Amino acid sequence: MIPGATAASFLLVVVLGAMSPGPDFVVVTRSSLAGGRRAGMAAGAGIALGVFAWVVAIALGVAAVLTASAVAFTVVKLVGAAYLVFLGVKAWLAVRRGEYRDLGPAKDTQPLKAGAAFRQGLFTNLLNPKVAVYFLALLPQFLPADGSTLQTLELAAIATAGTVLWFVTLAAVVGTLRRFFSDGRVRRGLDAVLGGVLVALGLKVAAETA
Known about the structure:
It is a single chain. By secondary structure, this protein is mainly α. It has eight helices and no strands. The radius of gyration is 18 Å and the shape is globular.
């Protein structure tokens, strides 16, 4: 078992890492704006599942193979970058079409569904090999020298809980403010900005080296 103090320290580090601006943050924010708190929380749950999958992959040695292989790392990185650009362009297309009355009385368009938001969060995280690099560097700091696979899985559960904690909180806050963002001009501006951020992040990920 992981000692309580070690588990608490790891949880704090994971939450602080999740709070840093990045693709996951943007995806949850936009999901909360497009579909409300439920969609935002679903996106956060998808991200958390991705974190769990990466830590389990580390426990099984899969992530180490990925980070050791320049070709595999580059393939996953470029696919992930393309997906971020896709989400950003999708936001820009919403700006062009003016799909903002879904938050107002008319409700002419459908809000983002929780299932779609969950998939966006999951794929955004799974297609980011930097997450594997981050946890490969982080986990040894919290495991004993003779750490077992079971202890690594304990940390995976803690990492998942910390990720859920932060992104559910973020989704709740943004979802609560959704009424303010129901104004078409405000929403148009936000989608333009968030779309630009996603495209920029995608290009940045594509240009980065392992």
